[in-house]
Amino acid sequence: MLEGSCLCGNICFSVTGAPEGVSACHCGQCRKQSGHVWSSAFVPETDLEITGAVTWYEATPQAKRGFCATCGAFLFWKAHDEDTMSFALGALDGPTGLRLEKHIFTADKGDYYEIADGVPQK
Known about the structure:
Elements: E1 2-5, E2 12-15, E3 20-25, H1 28-34, E4 38-44, E5 48-51, E6 54-57, E7 63-68, E8 74-79, E9 84-88, E10 102-104
Parallel strand pairs: 3-10
Antiparallel strand pairs: 1-2, 2-5, 3-4, 4-9, 6-7, 7-8, 8-9
């Protein structure tokens, strides 16, 4: 099981299922909300237990983003028409055993860095 929390600890979460889609998102929305790149994985919603009050921001008609209203930590991403939820890898405690599988929305990445880790880019 993986466990994580926001910076202030008001929101904690546990991941009981096997995470999928381990990725680094370079889209403009993730860059704006996180300050750089947002790394995440997803599980079925039933495999993610959240305690604390998540504030949801309707980023687009297709998805919402969950964050802590106290410390501002961007923790979750949820498409309205899917039964999975993405969670922030950076919010996890301790070793995860996960490895980055892909970079996504790389056409939108900032011009101040290069992606040179050999992981597939989309």
